[in-house]
Amino acid sequence: MIYFDNAATGFPKSERVFEAMKEAYFGSGNAGRSGHELASAGSRILYNCRKAAGVLFGCEPEHVVLTKNATEALNLAVKGAIKKSPKSEVLISSLEHNSVLRPVHAFCMENGMYYKQFEVHLYNDDITVENFKKAVTRKTAAAVITHASNVCGRILPVKRIAEIAKERGILLILDASQTAGHFPVTFENTGADIICVPGHKGFYGPMGTGMLLANPNSRLHFRTVMEGGTGISSFEKEMPDLLPERLEYGTLNNCGFAGLAAAMENFEYPADETRVFAYLIKKMRARDDVVLHGAPDGNIEDFVPVLLFNKKNVSCEEVAARLNEKGIAVRSGFHCSPLAHTALGTQKKGGVRISLGRANTVEEIDYFLSVL
Amino acid sequence: MHVIFVLSSVTYALKSQELLKKENIHASLTRSPAVKAVKGCGYGIMLDAEKETDARYILHDAGINILGTLYD
Predict the structure, then answer these.
(1) Cα separation of B36 and A27, whole Å?
(2) In DSSP terms, which residues pair with B7 in a beta bridge?
(3) Cα–Cα distances in Å, from A255 out to A42, A252, B40?
(4) Which H, E and C letters describe A131-142, residue by residue?
(5) How far does B53 lie from chain A, in Å, by closest CA?
(6) pLDDT band at residue B33, thresholds of 50, 70 and 90?
(7) What is the pLDDT of residues A101-152, one digit of tens each?
(8) What is the pLDDT of residue B35?
(9) Domain check: are A133 and A179 in the same one?
């Protein structure tokens, strides 16, 4: 199998991650619930995961909320941290995934608020930043933006956007689902107030893991979205005041977070992805039977290795099915991102997405091209 | 004699344990008896009472709030 679907989940996972999960499965109890050895082992597993994340993102363990995926983290951030104020606005970009669009839509509908988009220019960051600046009004309460598109891979100039947001007192929530693990994402280099990530994509951790990371300098207060047992303050009807427990309800996934901790400890960012991606782009551009959508054009450094294309006169679903028959995994359709497909002009027919990971090679690209 | 620092959560208890370990102060994780501050179950760390003052300084410097103190 040649796996070109790393934007959905990173593959292959490592043995080290699996071993850590197995150890947790047989050797830990319910974290934060008791003082006995097994429960304490569970608590240490979660703490080690928070610590490993803190090292990568630049925060303390207590600023790392463990979630089941990036979508849950984004829901907790949008519904918990954005100030509720009738008629105020939330800004999103034109490349957002439904994991941003849907919670923002629901939150705004429930609270008499509005949301609007600013356009991302694929080849000129100055225009993107200007678009963001123009979209900001005195009613803007928050911006929720992707760090990079899951459809075309374009990285947004988030640091510049964060500077404007900070000046204007706008909360900035960053969806780093497609960037975390591909290159360093930190509070310092993004300027975000909250970063939401999956554990299973760029970090190659287990599916069913994600994190909300809160900037220690942002003085955030979260309303809770879900409530339940936390193992502490049992006679209180409210959830604990402090992170991370304020946003963590019920039993957490020890095995998953043991695996994620193993994946993040001593993490090495991929060195060869951009070279392989550049090769793919060059070869695909040379073909006259395919159309590329939003692909890099002299600015490959502004993209994570994701390419959307269509083969002329063949539906995207058929292309994906035929590739699968030849042992090549890609994803076709709309990728849960109607906004991005609309921005790229593929809202009617969708597209075929290739998303590379750390294990992909130039030889695999050559085989794919021969099959295509 | 031992002292137990009652902390906000198991996360803070583990962080405190780690910070103290770096300064060669051994502390063990413990479920703390209920105290007013935690209104029910809570976590703490138990250490030699002779190290109490040093440990308080270390945790204070790290911004960790001790909710209650118990002596054993």
Answers:
(1) 33
(2) B43
(3) 9, 9, 28
(4) HHHHHCCCCEEE
(5) 24
(6) low
(7) 999 999 999 999 999 999 999 999 999 999 999 999 999 999 999 999 999 9
(8) 62
(9) yes
Q: pLDDT tens digit string along B9-22? A: 999 999 999 999 99
Residue B36 in tokens: 């007013």
Contact B64, B12 (CB under 8 A): yes
Question: CATH number for the domain including A306?
Answer: 3.90.1150.10
Q: Which of B11, B30, B39 sits opposite A244 (nearest CB)?
A: B11
Question: What is the number of structural domains in chain A?
Answer: 2
The parent domain of residue A363 ranges over: 2-11+269-371
Q: Tell me, yes or no, whether A203 and A278 share the same domain.
A: no
A47–B10 C-beta distance less than 8 A: yes
| Interchain contact A43–B (C-beta under 8 A) | yes
Q: Is the pTM of this model over 0.90?
A: yes
Q: Which residue has the tokens 């609270």?
A: A111
In this prediction, residues A188-203 reach a mean pLDDT of 98
A332 and A276 both lie in a single domain: yes
Residue A165: per-residue pLDDT: 98
Q: Could you say which of A201, A229, A264 is where a domain stops?
A: A264
Best mutation target, B4, B7, B14, to test chain A (most A CBs within 10 A): B14
